[in-house]
Amino acid sequence: MRTNPHILEINTRAWLKRLEAKHGHAFTLENIPEQFLDTMQAMGFDALWLMGVWKQSPKAVEIARASQDIQNQVRAIKPDFNPDDITASPYAVYDYEVDDAFGGNKALQAFRERLKARGISLLLDFVGNHMAIDCPAVEQDPDLFVNSGTAEPAHHKDWFFKTQKGIFIAHGRDPYFAPWTDTAQLNYFNPNTREYMLNNLRRVAALCDGVRCDMAMLTMSKVHRDIWWEFIGSTLPKREFWSEALETIREENPEFTFIAEVYWGLEWEVQELGFDYTYDKILYDRLRFSSPQDIKGHLGAEHLYQMRSMRFTANHDEEESLKAFGREKSLAASTIIATLPGARLFHLFQLLGRPARMPIQYVQDWFAKDEEVFAYYQKLLSIVSSPAFHGGQWSLRDVQPEGDGSCCNILSWQWKQMKTGKVIVINYSDAPAKCRMSLKGVCGGEVTEEFSGNKIALSDEVKAQGVVLELKPFESKIFTFQV
Predict the structure, then answer these.
(1) How far apart are CA 212 and CA 7, in angstroms?
(2) How many CA atoms within 13 Å lie on the side-chain side of 369?
(3) Which label site among 15, 22, 55, 227 has the fewest CB atoms less than 10 Å from its CB?
């Protein structure tokens, strides 16, 4: 993948159902239309993250269909939905084999070869914290999981379920939320668990070019101990699981990519364990809720941290960007993340203009494609596929005030590579804004604004005084020039 890669996330099951509705016949990974791959390549994607390809848990299907919360989320968007179109969470993994509905491992391997021929890497999920409640290991080797033996736990009984053999095993959980009742919590203080999950990771790594590791911080030893100490003890293992696992996989495949979903300010620690990229949820939250000054403050972090951050304005866990941000703000936010250092993540349904997020367990996620939104992303991704955004040097810029104080709402940065320069200027507010942009150091006879194609002639006066920019609410401009 290029430096600062573009990654496309796809909810595999919902995507194949959408293709089926469009073309009138079922699809597996073996017969994906050539047109889709051509479009991905033309839009400049470096990697495809196929979310949710693993074998489904029958029990997780039952739990999802019985969930009033999931039903209510679907009903709010599609009142006449069929409950049979609710299926298991992709994060209750029954087994690390590609689901038969997608054509199995063989179909995935064929699809991977087609991607490879276009220079596109394949990313898959690895769920380190837990397995499905009914995965074979639950009955075969319950000590791989956090458990209280045959004695029902004295506290937090709702955190546990009872196996057929009478063992009480904990559900996977984030300490700030209720347990995931379709999962069984792995015990990383047991060396056998580490070996079991390392072998699973090897199986996954043989099928793809990289993994997105779900809730990676839950597997860190101190976090794991703080959540489960009364069942697993407090003596920390000598090494972090992730350090050992990443080292092992990279001995076999040095180019393998590791992406971590991580929160709670632990991003740098997880990067230090060897991950290539970590979620930048802080930037997402600031783009959605904070001021341009707060956003700029976050972008002043250490450069290596920036390069290892994965930026996004949508993914399967977050509300759809059009609804979360509003239409114009969502496109401005996406322009921000597309022009920053680090990995740049987009969701297929985001590009197609999905108006609101459906639960990932609902497979018939049909909505009309928003042609205007899709055209914007096509243009944006074409612009940021320029080599300067992938091999150049990035730095923040300041803009100068012009007549009023509205320039405080303008964000700006630049990329420089050899003789090419790019300056990004974004009014990240719901009111017009004005500023003066310096053109010192610019060579050549003109500057081109990429979205509009408009050109600014570089007279001596313009070079000396800069150019006044008037930006509409949430308007973005990307300038290209010679340096």
Answers:
(1) 11
(2) 11
(3) 22
What is the rounded average pLDDT of the residues 394-418? 92
Q: How many domains does the chain contain in total? A: 2
Taking the model in full, what pTM does it have? 0.96
460 falls in which pLDDT band (50, 70, 90)? confident
pLDDT-above-90 percentage for the chain: 91
Give the mean pLDDT of 251-279.
96
In 9-67, which residue ranges form alpha helices assigned H by DSSP? 12-23, 34-42, 58-66
Cβ within 8 Å of residue 473, ≥6 positions away: 328, 427, 429, 430, 431, 432
Helix (H) or strand (E) holding 311: strand 309-312
Answer whether residue 85 is part of any domain.
Answer: yes
Chosen domain end from 336, 364, 385: 385
Task: Identify the residue whose tokens are 């009138």.
Answer: 24
Q: Domain range spanning residue 289?
A: 6-127+280-385
Query: Rounded distance, CA 437 to CA 431, Å?
Result: 19
- The overall longest dimension of the chain from CA atoms, in Å, is 83
Tell whether 16 is covered by a domain.
yes
According to DSSP, the residues that pair with 61 across neighbouring strands are none
Geometric angle at alpha carbon 115, from 3 and 363, rounded to 5°: 105
Indicate the residue type of 4. Answer: N
Whether residues 326 and 357 fall in one domain: yes
Q: Is 154 helix (H, G, I), strand (E, B) or coil?
A: coil
Question: Tell me: the pLDDT tens digits for 291-344?
Answer: 999 999 999 988 899 999 999 999 999 999 999 999 999 999 999 999 999 999
Identify the three-state secondary structure at position 416.
strand
CA gap 28, 50 in Å, rounded: 13
Given 340, 364, 385, the domain boundary residue is: 385
Structural domain includes residue 78: yes
Q: Does residue 137 form part of some domain?
A: no
Q: What are phi and psi of 265, to 5 degrees?
A: 75, 15
Average pLDDT, the chain: 95
Stretch 101-119: mean pLDDT:
97
